[in-house]
Design a protein that fits this description.
Shape: globular
Helix content: 25-40%
Low-confidence stretches: none
Number of helices: 8
Oligomer: single chain
Distance between the termini: 16 Å
Largest sheet: 4 strands, mixed
Strand content: 15-25%
Number of strands: 8
C-alpha cells in the first residue's frame, strides 16, 4: 500500500476479522483516560500526546477521570513479562494473568492488549503492555507511541496490519497512513454503531473513508 492508496471494503473487513473468522468491530463508548507506567516524564508526554492526537483524529473525547474506573486506558512499559506478576492487583484486572504472561514469554512477544467492554459492546477499558525488547529499543519513542495509540483506539483484528502497516515516514516524521487515518475517523461516525458483528458494517466504513 502506498501513501496515496485507499483501503477497499475487503481490506476493512480483514482489519476487523478475528483469528477464528468472525467479524467484530468495537470503538470506545466513553471518554478515554490514560495512565502510563514505567516511563520517564519525557516519554510519558510523548505517549499521552500520541493518544490525544489519535483521539482528536477520531473525533472522540478524553477526560481527567473515568467515574467507574478512574483510568480506563492503562499502559505498561517494562523489560520482562515476569514483571507484570509483581504489579499489585493486576491479576484482579486481567483474568488468567499468570497463564498469559507465560504464553507471551514463551512466544517472545513484545506487545499485548486486553480490552473490556460495556453492555452494548463498546470499549470501556484497555490494558496495553509493551515489553521493550532490542527491536523496540531501536525505534523512536514517537513511533512506538503513535503505533500504540492507533492500536488501542479500536478493537482491531489480530492480523489487521499485516498487509497494511498503519504508520509511514513523511519528510522524516512518523505519521498515520492516510487510509488508516480515514478509517479511524469513519469508525467514530456517530451514525454508525459502537459495536458491530455483521461484515456488512465494513462496507459502511469503507464508504466513509476519504
Amino acid at each position: 500500500m502506498t501513501e496515496t492508496e485507499t483501503l477497499t471494503p475487503a481490506d476493512v473487513t480483514r482489519m476487523f476479522t478475528r483469528a477464528g473468522g468472525d467479524y467484530l468491530f468495537a470503538r470506545w463508548g466513553r471518554p478515554i483516560v490514560p495512565v502510563v507506567f514505567g516511563v520517564d516524564a519525557a516519554t510519558l508526554a510523548t505517549v499521552k500526546g500520541a493518544v490525544e492526537a489519535v483521539v482528536a483524529l477520531a473525533g472522540h473525547k478524553m477526560a481527567e477521570t473515568d467515574p467507574e474506573l478512574g483510568a480506563n486506558l492503562m499502559i505498561f512499559f517494562f523489560r520482562d513479562w515476569q514483571e507484570l506478576l509483581e504489579v499489585p492487583n493486576l491479576d484482579q484486572l486481567i483474568d488468567g494473568l499468570a497463564d498469559i504472561v507465560a504464553r507471551l514469554d514463551d512466544q517472545g512477544a513484545n506487545q499485548y492488549r486486553a480490552f473490556r467492554f460495556d453492555a452494548d459492546g463498546a470499549i470501556r477499558a484497555c490494558f496495553a503492555f509493551i515489553r521493550m525488547d532490542p527491536a523496540l529499543d531501536e525505534a523512536p519513542a514517537e513511533t512506538i507511541a503513535l503505533s500504540l495509540a492507533t492500536q488501542v483506539i479500536l478493537l482491531w483484528g489480530e492480523a489487521a496490519f499485516d498487509a497494511h502497516p498503519p504508520l509511514a515516514q513523511m519528510r522524516g516524521v512518523t505519521v498515520l497512513r492516510p487510509g488508516i487515518a480515514g478509517l479511524i475517523r469513519a469508525a467514530y461516525d456517530p451514525v454508525l454503531p459502537a459495536c458491530a458483528q455483521d461484515p456488512s458494517h465494513a462496507l459502511r466504513l469503507a464508504a466513509r473513508i476519504g
